[in-house]
Design a protein that fits this description.
234 residues; alpha+beta; 2 domains; Pdz3 Domain; 50% helix; five-stranded antiparallel sheet; single chain
Length: 234
């Protein structure tokens, strides 16, 4: 992208139009050279140092960025913004599962071990975070959770929001479909899948597997198109 080879850093490829980074002046194509006063160096130690600096900075309420934009060197201060109060926690359970209870996003160890990439795991966490954002975990929705038709709508809406959360967090939204396919294959044996899901149509509160996969693929393509349109507009 025309950046000097002697300058380390990472290039901004996406910005939430309404987010604090955009409001602070960060732009698509900017090269971030330091975070919290710590230079971005592509090593394990460098990433760890930046992570610690970022955590300490947000605890103070803002994050300082050093940015290179063309020939200009800029210093930006991004205000901390809590998006989700829930913590993601790995629990020691043998079942492949994940759920949100309003205060935590709980992912079983078996689920975490099943998914080979951060992108696929990000889908699981994003899906459960979406339930929190959309208010599905509220006690006011207990009746809706017992209604199969309403629950299916909730799950579909959570999937739609999840792929958007993935992209905004820097993960590949296409991984949502591959993660779901992997879970589907591992959760039950082929005979059980055929009898209960394919033959009898017992899918619980979710779309049938093929429909859900197609929906996730379509949603990923949609958010990619939205991203490309926003980049073109800039």
């Amino acid at each position: 992208m025309g950046f000097p080879e002697d300058v380390s850093g990472t290039v901004v490829s996406y910005i939430n139009a309404d987010g604090p980074a955009r409001l602070a002046g960060l732009r698509y194509g900017d090269q971030i050279t330091a975070i919290g006063g710590v230079a971005l160096v592509p090593t394990t130690e460098g990433r760890a140092a930046v992570a610690e600096a970022s955590k300490a900075a947000f605890e103070k309420g803002h994050l300082a960025l050093s940015v290179r934009r063309g020939d200009a060197e800029l210093d930006l201060a991004i205000a901390g913004q809590q998006i989700c109060a829930a913590n993601a926690v790995i629990i020691n359970k043998k079942r492949t599962n994940a759920y949100a209870n309003g205060s935590n996003i709980l992912v079983t160890q078996r689920m975490e071990q099943l998914l080979p990439s951060d992108d696929e795991l990000a889908y699981i966490i994003s899906h459960e975070a979406a339930h929190v954002f959309l208010g599905h975990t509220s006690t006011e929705n207990e009746a809706d959770l017992r209604n199969s038709a309403t629950r299916k709508i909730m799950e579909r809406d959570a999937d739609a929001l999840a792929v958007r959360l993935m992209l905004k967090a820097g993960y590949a939204p296409e991984a949502a479909a591959t993660a779901q396919q992997r879970i589907e294959k591992s959760d039950t044996g082929p005979i059980t899948r055929f009898v209960f899901r394919d033959l009898l149509g017992m899918h619980g509160p979710y779309l049938p597997p093929k429909e859900r996969t197609a929906f996730l693929i379509a949603q990923a393509a949609e958010v990619r198109a939205e991203l490309e349109a926003s980049i073109t507009a800039q």
